[in-house]
User: Fold this.
Amino acid sequence: MDAIVILIGKRMESAVKVQQILTDNGDIIRTRLGINHELSKDENAAGFIFLELCGDEKRVENLCDVLNAIGDVKAECLKMEIPGNGCGCSC
Assistant:
């Protein structure tokens, strides 16, 4: 399973940029879970997004790189598998 965890520092500033990138890559996003640490209009409010991905490994890495190019956004790519099970992805 490929996953990306994203921490958005200044959510109000960066959310629109992150949203556009995720929309552009929607065909490889299987599951998306967003959690706002602070449900406020505070411009410094942070947010967290978890993505489960299914797609080409290069696209996953590129998505992570593009997200990390946004100021105040940190994205980490994760790859987890149970030996012999594969990812179970049907994309």
Summary: The two ends are 12 Å apart (CA to CA).
